[in-house]
Amino acid sequence: MTARRVVVVTAGLSTPSSTRLLADRLAASAVRSLREQGHQATVETVELRDHARDLADRMLTGFASPGLAEVVDGIADADGVIAVTPIFNASYSGLFKTFFDAVEPDALTDTPVLIAATGGTARHSLALEHAVRPLFGYLRSVVAPTAVFAAAEDWGSGGDGRLGVRIDRAADQFAALVGSRSRAEPRDPFDDPVPFATLLSGE
């Protein structure tokens, strides 16, 4: 079995949060799918609410606290990311955007990402396509084709079955991307050192 590490980023504000609930269901389905493919999967969940103050400080000072820096570095090392945000005013939350502003522009290049969101009504669902997907397109991630939106009515007995179908479809697509990903070994910066004479010459 090959090991795959999935990081779940959830921007829910309340406790309990429907955003966290959706994130957990997506992660569980992705782990199941990865295991069916023969991969051992581990999941780490990042609650952005817990890092809100550090994110605000980083936005004002340009420097991340040690705790926030560890979280950001963990995202860069993930084999796949599940990103879930509540929708406010037809877009992702400010907390969600502030976190991904703290991620280095190349950190998620070619990284599989499953995007999902929660909102009061289904009319907010297009925010996944006109706001969230372009964000990860800019970061050059590989975004799973199916995005999952959960409105308030999806958590009732009538809608939960349909939500489950969407979750499993998206998770299977995401797991296929994560499972087939081959990661290049990190480049050693000392493999090709600049000659000392060149450093002295200022060239």
UniProtKB/TrEMBL annotation:
Annotated NADPH-dependent FMN reductase-like domain residues: 5-155
Transmembrane segments: none
Pfam families given in the database record: FMN_red (PF03358)
GO molecular function list: oxidoreductase activity
Claim: Cell wall biogenesis/degradation is one of the keywords in the record: no
UniProt keyword annotations, A-Z: Flavoprotein, FMN, Oxidoreductase
Coiled coil spans: none
This protein's record includes keyword NAD: no
PANTHER family, alphabetized: FMN REDUCTASE (NADPH)
Listed name of the protein: Oxidoreductase
Organism: Nocardiopsis ansamitocini
